[in-house]
Design a protein that fits this description.
The chain has about 500 residues and is of the alpha/beta class. The chain contains 18 helices and 26 strands. It is globular.
């Protein structure tokens, strides 16, 4: 790496190897690292730390850390440390298969919380002190301020609160990203909070760099490695049908006068189905759209390039390798249309409500009454985490949850009598969409919601079975407001565990 990325002489003198930097991290520490999805996470120090943890274990010495990030990361961080049995506690979100397996085996503690809560909860002291922060940046300026990388996440909080700081300067990241960020330093703890002065989603209310106490920097590491986000699966018929139902609904809302012609700021979760919705918007006839979201993925980049999307505000990227190259090649174009913020701003409940965001997120299952489970398979096995979906579902103008109507080759129904784990209650869910259709739950009583969900979202293989349950619940339930047969409410899940299918008989 060339020295031009590290312009502060004092920090240039602290350049060491990843191994030397990792040696600053001791067993039992709470370590806060950068990264939001597979972007902007440290590439070298976590691997070196995992190797040191493995060496300690081979010598019979215990060595684990408590790990915090912005959201999920990538194999060089979550994967390497999980394989080394180096994580005692993980927070607040993960997608790594090795970490997930250890969590579900009861060998790794995991705290799953709303992403908007992370920074403030750490400031409140709920998780103790942060011993070390490991942050990837694009460059270090002459004054010692840090040019953020392809995600911002909780980096401001980590830098402010950590006792020690390790900086990775990644030359693979485009230098042209400088100026794309908006780091707001006006937050405070109660009772000293003031209104956040953001009126439009593309307003800039902060500065383009991160502040850093140079006395806390113990090491700087030069790296040159790519972000790692998996390519999206091409949209199949199911995804396209889900996208079509939602886009038709949005057009209907415009025609009814409940949405403006350019909608309201969009939030899209990460995944193949939300990405298919974004692709559908490209040919839907909508123009001058806006996005106030957590993550920019391929579909949103395409909308910006085509002019359908006017701007996008986010905290990080989730771009496939091909989209990453497009972003780097046309960085000047995107720098004028993308604003990258701290996670506590991108997901801030008051901003989401005031801007009137439209939330579009995936789910594992929904029940008759509109409760949604977005995190746990069969009630107890974590998949990834709630992420930011709750920030937008609870506070946005409109919350839509999307899923195919079945999973596991049709053996699981995504619409069940009662969800096995509740992340989003019926009070926060406006729309449920499967490839079968769309259920608009707004303004409906519980039994009305149930009938709409059964009629429009359930796969034909399970419709009669669910109609039978609901009819008997309406007749025999202890209460008739939200009818349930408690001995049967979770029987579909138990049947799948016992027989491999939710189908009766």
């Amino acid at each position: 790496m060339t020295a031009e990325r590290i312009l502060h002489p004092r920090l240039r003198d602290r350049v060491v190897s990843a191994e030397a930097a990792a040696a600053w991290i001791a067993p039992g520490e709470t370590v806060a690292m950068s990264g939001f999805t597979g972007s902007g996470y440290p590439k070298a120090v976590p691997i070196a730390l995992a190797q040191q943890i493995e060496a300690a274990h081979q010598a019979g010495q215990p060595f684990q850390i408590k790990l915090m990030t912005g959201a999920s990361t990538a194999p060089e961080l979550d994967g390497a440390l999980a394989k080394a049995d180096g994580i005692a506690l993980r927070m607040p979100f993960q997608t790594d298969p090795d970490a997930r397996a250890r969590i579900n085996a009861g060998k790794l503690d995991y705290i799953d919380i709303h992403l908007s809560h992370v920074a403030q909860h750490v400031w409140f002291g709920f998780y103790g002190e942060i011993d070390t922060a490991v942050i990837e940046v694009t460059a270090i300026r002459e004054d010692g301020s840090l040019v953020p990388s392809t995600s911002v996440g909780n980096n401001k909080t980590w830098l402010d609160l950590a006792k020690k700081i390790i900086i990775e300067v990644n030359e693979w990241q485009p230098a042209g990203i400088d100026g794309m960020h908006d780091i707001y330093y006006g937050t405070a703890l109660p009772p000293h909070r003031k209104p956040i002065p953001l009126v439009h989603g593309d307003d800039r209310i902060g500065q383009t760099t991160l502040n850093c106490d140079l006395d806390k920097v113990v090491a700087v590491v030069r790296t040159n490695g790519p972000d790692r986000n998996s390519p999206f699966t091409p949209a199949d018929e199911t995804s396209e049908r889900i996208a079509g139902h939602l886009i038709e609904f949005l057009k209907h809302e415009v025609a009814r006068g409940r949405l403006p012609a350019n909608l309201l700021p969009l939030q899209s979760g990460v995944g193949n189905i939300p990405n298919a919705v974004l692709a559908g918007l490209a040919s839907s006839g909508f123009r001058d759209l806006e996005a106030f979201t957590e993550v920019i993925q391929d579909g949103m980049l395409d909308l910006l390039k085509s002019g359908v999307l006017r701007y996008a505000s986010c905290t990080g990227f989730a771009l496939s390798p091909v989209a990453n190259e497009e972003f780097k090649h046309n960085i000047d174009f995107y720098r004028e249309r993308i604003v990258m913020r701290t996670q506590e701003i991108s997901n801030h409940p008051e901003l989401v409500r005031r801007l009137g965001c439209i939330g579009m997120n995936g789910m594992i299952e929904a029940d008759l009454y509109g409760n949604v489970n977005s995190t746990h398979v069969m009630g107890s096995r974590i998949m990834n985490g709630i992420g930011g979906s709750g920030d937008f579902a609870r506070n946005g103008f409109l919350s839509a949850f999307l899923s195919p109507s079945t999973a596991k080759h049709g053996t699981i129904s995504s619409i069940v009598p009662m969800v096995s784990h509740v992340d989003h209650t019926e009070h926060d869910v406006a729309v449920v969409v499967t490839e079968q259709g769309l259920a608009d739950l707004r303004g409906l009583t519980p039994k009305q919601r149930a009938r709409v969900v059964i009629d429009r979202c359930v796969h034909p293989d399970y419709r009669a079975q669910l109609e039978d349950y609901f009819a008997r619940a309406c007749r025999d339930a202890y209460g008739k407001h939200t009818p349930h047969l408690l001995p049967e409410a979770l029987s579909w899940h138990q049947r799948w565990l016992d027989t491999g299918t939710m189908r009766e008989g």
